[in-house]
Amino acid sequence: MDLDLDLRKLRYFVAVAEHRHFGRAAQTLFIAQPVLSRQIRAFEQELGCRLFERTTRSVELTPAGQRLYEEARSITTVVTAALRRVHEAERGEQRLVVAFSPGLHVSEAIRVYAAEHPEVEIDVFPLRWWEQDAPLRDGRAHVGFLRRPFEDSGLRTVPVGHETKVACLPVSHPLAGRHALTSADLDGEEILDVRTRRTSSLDEKFELIAAGQGLALVPLSVAGSYSRSDLVHLPVTDALPVETCLAVPENACAGPVRDFLDVAASTLRRDARPSGPVGA
Amino acid sequence: MDLDLDLRKLRYFVAVAEHRHFGRAAQTLFIAQPVLSRQIRAFEQELGCRLFERTTRSVELTPAGQRLYEEARSITTVVTAALRRVHEAERGEQRLVVAFSPGLHVSEAIRVYAAEHPEVEIDVFPLRWWEQDAPLRDGRAHVGFLRRPFEDSGLRTVPVGHETKVACLPVSHPLAGRHALTSADLDGEEILDVRTRRTSSLDEKFELIAAGQGLALVPLSVAGSYSRSDLVHLPVTDALPVETCLAVPENACAGPVRDFLDVAASTLRRDARPSGPVGA
DNA sequence: CCAGATCCATGCCTCGACGGTATCAATGTG
DNA sequence: CACATTGATACCGTCGAGGCATGGATCTGG
After folding, report:
1. Number of other CB atoms surrounding residue A70 within 10 Å
2. Does domain B93-161+242-268 have CATH number 3.40.50.300?
3. Assigned fold of B7-88
4. For residue B261, which of B53, B92, B117, B75 has the smallest C-alpha distance?
């Protein structure tokens, strides 16, 4: 991957895109106009696509340029937030990013923790369906409330609850009139799984179901939040409830994470046995 | 703001952070070790804070370095996704980003649009409570389903529905035993508003309410999704329902946005009068 | 139709940043 | 205490960013 996007050139590009005029954009950037022309041309070559359709009398964005202009806002937002948080860390401010699988709500543990540790800034990280554990591994989140199955290796996990799963089918489906199903009823049906069909959102998954592409087993809480008139949710009497876990990276025994685990353990008051060795 | 973060230096930093060893990190980067030492030092000066605590025998991350390492993942994720989408645009692929106020679900219009325009990639942009319209103005989203109130100027809006608001109060509140309230009952109560108290998440707002910091008026759909045992939701009989709108930037009459508005207009089949002039 | 204005592009120059090689200084090891 | 390891420093060459002058294309007024 050529991740070497030059943020300075991106800033130049944004100026030209907003002014649609090289001379005035150069003025706001405090550089000379010829420099800007060359930088933009170099930027286009680096990206491999033209960004402006320009004559001597007009400067207009190409589709690629339009797209880049939109993306530039996301990039600058993330970068400025990152720099701000780095400086906060430099000043000693602590932060804890708690990831949540979709449909799970902020738990009791996080509220107790926030009350006990007001000096720690707490952020939530909404997880996507297909990236249950990745943000925990690469450092984007420190602790996570995940729904099984996910990849255990390298994580310490604590079970925190169970969710019953219900079958989601279109109203036109032959089984839709039943009051309850068994797993035997689902034999031969196409089950939409994270592995079989990578849907980017839950709504997209429901859309596939409504279109007759298959069925899905979804946690009850999710089914309740996203009710649609063209879908029905039916309990599956013999389905195993899916386990929800609190997970942290194995190597992370640092302050806030450690404290959070302590709070979680005392909050749960149930058989909260860590699945791995709990070192000091 | 000094947004001029050098992504090349960031890449160097990540390599050192992962290897905790300048020589080996330099090998993987295909540069000489002295270069890496100088780049890291320059990077620290640009950021204004030390990133590594290093002796001749060990290299460890400072708190600021640890934070930057976490943020680096977010930055690279956003940048690579942005570059990918720019190239998709270059190849002619179209994209439509639909923003949603929290609690609103993907509407009928988006499903119909996706079915009619399978060539357009559709993304959703979950809006925060305090940034109802900003992503629409700066290009991060193309159309948005917003909940009033928001800043109208510069946007074309189409009313798409109404939501009744319910009062959310802690169970310990004197009014909590009532079956319904009127707005007169709420006189003198502290109402938690986006303007009065900038809560970063809905859960945080509910947490404030549970802590006795005040009450809030929340849309019914939101109240249903986030039920808590320490809060009660009561209808307010004379409260005006809050209007939900479909909004697009005034200057955007381009292809996918235009098509989406057409689909929305035909889908709604109600008095979908645009609030502004609908140019060609 | 032409002179002038406007505006982006090109050529040439200077300077600073990046990368390489050689070497020093500090620390751990047998 | 000799030696290896490792990060830091010094010095040098190259490349790219920025400035200035100018060219070429297009629109406008007379």
Report:
1. 21
2. no
3. Arc Repressor Mutant, subunit A (1.10.10)
4. B117
- Token output for B88: 């998709």
Per-residue pLDDT of chain B (280 residues; tens, 9 = 90+): 557 899 999 999 999 999 999 999 999 999 999 999 999 999 999 999 999 998 888 899 999 999 999 999 999 999 999 999 999 999 999 999 988 887 776 667 887 888 889 889 888 887 877 778 888 988 889 999 988 888 888 888 888 888 888 888 888 888 888 888 888 888 877 777 766 555 656 666 777 787 777 888 888 777 766 667 778 888 888 877 888 888 999 876 678 898 898 888 787 654 434 443 333 3
What's the one-letter identity of residue B81?
A: A
Contact flag B1-A73 (C-beta cutoff 8 Å): no
A 83-102: CB under 8 A from B: 83, 85-90, 92, 95, 97
Is the CB of residue B20 less than 8 Å away from at least one CB of chain A?
A: no
Whether residue A69 lies within 8 A of chain B, CB to CB, comes out as yes
A49's tokens: 């696509």
Residue A238 CA to residue B26 CA, distance in Å, equals 56
Using CB atoms, pick whichever of B48, B64, B95 lies closest to residue A89: B64
Q: Is the peptide bond before B149 cis (omega within 30 degrees of 0)?
A: yes
Q: Does the domain formed by A93-159+244-268 have CATH 3.40.190.10? A: yes
Give CATH for domain A7-87. Answer: 1.10.10.10
| CATH class of the structural domain B165-235 | alpha beta
Domain positions in chain B: 7-88, 93-161+242-268, 165-235
- Detail the protein residues whose CB sits closer than 7 A to any atom belonging to strand D: A 6, 8-9, 30-32, 34-35, 38-39, 42, 55-57; B 21-23, 33-34, 37-38, 40-41, 54, 56-57, 59
